Amino acid sequence: MADYKMHLLVCGGTGCNASDSEQIRDNLLTEVEKHDLNDEVQVVMTGCFGFCEKGPIVKILPDNTFYVQVKPEDAATIVEEHLIKGRKVERLLYKDPENNEPISDSKHMEFYKKQVRIALRNCGFINPENIDEYIARDGYAALAKCLGERTPQQVIDEIKLSGQRGRGGGGFPTGLKWEITSKSVADQKYVVCNADEGDPGAFMDRSILEGDPHSVIEAMAICGYCTGSTKGLVYIRAEYPLAIQRLKTAIKQAREYGLLGEEIFGTPFSFDITLRYGAGAFVCGEETALIHSMEGLRGEPTFKPPFPSESGYLGKPTTVNNVETLASIPVIINKGAAFFNSIGTAKSKGTKVFALAGKINNVGLIEVPMGTTLREVIFDIGGGIKGGKKFKAVQTGGPSGGCLTHSFLDTPIDYDNLISAGSMMGSGGMIVMDEDDCMVSIAKFYLEFTLDESCGKCTPCRIGNKRLFEMLDKITKGLGTEEDLSRLRSLCKVIKDTSLCGLGQTSPNPILSTLDNFYDEYLAHVKEHKCPAGQCKSLVKYTIDSEKCTGCTLCFRNCPVGAIAGEKRAPHTIDNSICIKCGVCYDKCKFDAISVS
Amino acid sequence: MNKIKSLDDLRQLREGMQAKIKLRESGNNAENMVRIKVAMSTCGIASGAKEIMNFMMDELEHKAIEAVVSQTGCMGYCYAEPTIEVTVPGREPIVFGEVDKFRAAEIIEKYIIHNELVDGILPVNYRSIDN
Predict the structure, then answer these.
(1) How far apart are CA A332 and CA A154, in angstroms?
(2) DSSP for residue A373
(3) CB contacts < 8 Å between A and B, how many?
(4) Among A478, A504, A527, residue at a domain's last position
(5) Which end of chain B has fewer beta carbons closer than 10 Å to its terminal beta carbon, N or C?
(6) In sequence order, what DSSP letters do the residues of A80-123 get, joined into one string?
(7) Considering only A199-213, A468-482, B31-45, which range has the smallest mean pLDDT?
(8) What is the pLDDT of residue A422?
(9) Is there a domain that residue A122 lies in?
(10) What is the pLDDT of residue A111?
């Protein structure tokens, strides 16, 4: 039986794989075998290291040597030098960009890891249904510190100093929000956790609640102490049953330990939390609509001011914070504002969790310091575009955000940069699109979503968005004119300026940003009646190349609507008046005879 | 359960818990105690984490390997669910992705019993804030 003393880890992430990592593995195996080291050295493929710019990567255990940009022909050198002679191959080591010194092991190059986990610090680490594991990781220490050693104002000052801004999308300074509520005078105040996560493709809040519910509970209690509230409410969508169940378990455990309830930590401070379920309406993520929904009224927004911090739930001062914002609070208290402050950009501090989705290799949940570039997120952490296709755009901020192109890849991500780039931070959904995506259809998709979710209270949003959708629909059907494009733009502006709440004020963003960045594509739709990406079905035409068609009848047999005709062993034809453009024939054809135009 | 009445109570409990976890990880029978965490949030469960957790428990018991199998939240590797983290005493924790029953059995047989790695390890690609 082999008793391995050394392991060679070859990065098999898609990015590295594209640059021959399998060949590297095979060469390493051959070399290992050649030197009769089979029983001592094992070669394995791993997942992505998140450092694709320097890939392919080979890591050696147990000494943690980290070789970058390895080529298949380097295998022999690695085995002969490192494994046999015990000398590191200097030219393959990562060079410190500052002084060009090679760094010999990965323990000293933590910086290659682009992610820093603050809000996600316990996710995937502790058992979310066991309060003791949370406590072992400094859980509830921040609450104890606040209650025992600090006045509410001191805590608020710390949060203000940390520079934390709301992670739900708006980016309002958290400390300031708490201060306003704390200064409002009332017999009862409330702390609300906004867990109504609704952006398509976003699941940060769900993951935090499912992976680390106690951090949210602790932060709500701290907020209660600071603002003078004794009651906390979590507004969570009923579509998150596991998050609800874990939250309930966590609240029960916290009560049993006396960390919720009367006289917490033996101090006069009392605080308890109850849950409120949302029916999954997108607009209820807007704080005034959320509050009305909790009050049992229709989930419609109302004009601000008054802000909820002054008059919120049941007319009482209410602090509404997003899940991710709350999850970071205990860290700010435990590690100090300076720690949090040291991460991020001038105006956006700390880290942000993103849900990476779309045409990207490493779909997942990530947390990066503010100021990380889109390129680092997409190409290093995300491992690049699926199937080696070309990057086209990334959509941030959900239905309120916009599409960013190639030219924004090196923009550091923070609240202000994203806004000046025509998008927004939003809650952290990041959907990556490749060359096969039609930007007009994307804009239409988001608009369809807002159309469904508009509460209908104000006219610009209710009727304006409907008209926008109709225009986009017309364009994707090849019936649009250039005039439609200018009408589209002016209506977008009107809706932005005149809608009542954030939903309407931002709903035209996906259209505006695609108009700005992909005007050519819109023009192709209206002038040439063509969809460059081949996505708009009405504009697509399938044809059979009679030279290539062998008459195998496979397309004929698979066409669901009988649009294909032809004799056996003779070229087939497609009747475009019947064709529904499902693309089955294209997928089935073994001879490349069917083309899309 | 006793109520926590003061900061000292909390400290005591924390230390107690840390000691307990330490004991669990490197206790009396350190050679045999393996710790496995299965990522079990909605996404993990949807891709079969529950079955993997049950399978691992059965299989470990069957092979008489002393181990603690517990659930945890999302590790963030959605592209590779179900994911599990295996800590064998004396070795660094290792995360394995796309664990089906076949791979789970392979991990137990090769990695846990024979210290052989298997393909599909997910390298830690983030910094934690622990000191």
Answers:
(1) 13
(2) B
(3) 181
(4) A527
(5) C
(6) IIIIII----GGGBEEPTTT--EE-BGGG-GGG--EEESTTTTT
(7) B31-45
(8) 83
(9) no
(10) 66
The reply to whether B115 touches chain A by the CB within 8 Å rule is yes
For residue B57, the enclosing domain spans: 29-122
| Statement to judge: residues A175 and A235 lie in one domain | yes
Of A135, A136, A211, the CB nearest to B74: A211
A144 in the same domain as A107:
no
CATH number, domain with residue A423: 3.10.20.600
User: Do A177 and A275 fall within a single domain?
Assistant: yes
pLDDT at A16 over 80: no
pLDDT tens-digit map of A219-251: 999 999 999 999 999 999 999 999 999 999 999
Environment class of A169 (CB within 10 Å of its CB; exposed 0-12, middle 13-18, buried 19+): buried
Q: Give the range of the structural domain holding residue A234, as residue numbers without chain letter.
A: 131-337
Domain contains B106:
yes
Is B102 within 8 Å of chain A by CB? no
Residue from the list B1, B3, B42 with its beta carbon closest to the beta carbon of A210: B42
Beta bridge partners of A494: none
Q: Which of A388-397, B79-88, B113-122 has the lowest mean pLDDT?
A: B113-122
Q: Is A144 in the same domain as A217?
A: yes
Q: With an 8 Å Cβ cutoff, are A364 and B79 in contact?
A: yes
Considering only CB atoms, A135 lies closest to which of B17, B75, B83, namely: B17
Above 0.90 for ipTM, yes or no? no
Q: How far apart are CA A220 and CA A197, in angstroms?
A: 18
The residue assigned the tokens 């609704």 is A198
* Pairwise CB contact (< 8 Å): B42 & A50: no
| Domain-embedded: residue A206 | yes
CATH assignment of the domain containing B43: 3.40.30.10
| Whether residue A202 sits in one domain with residue A328 | yes
Per-residue pLDDT at A158:
96
